[in-house]
Amino acid sequence: MSTEPLRLALIIGSTREGRFGPTVARWFLDRVKQRDDFAVDVVDLAEHELPFVMTSQLTPEGARALGEVTPRLEAAEAFVVVTPEYNHSFPASLKNLVDWHGKQWHAKPVGFVSYGGLSGGLRAVEALRPVFAEVHSVTVRATVSFHNAWEQFGPDGEPVDREGAGAAATYLLDQLGWWATTLRAGRERRPYVS
Ligand SMILES: Cc1cc2nc3c(=O)[nH]c(=O)nc-3n(C[C@H](O)[C@H](O)[C@H](O)COP(=O)(O)O)c2cc1C
Question: Any idea which fold 6-189 has?
Answer without folding.
Answer: Rossmann fold (3.40.50)
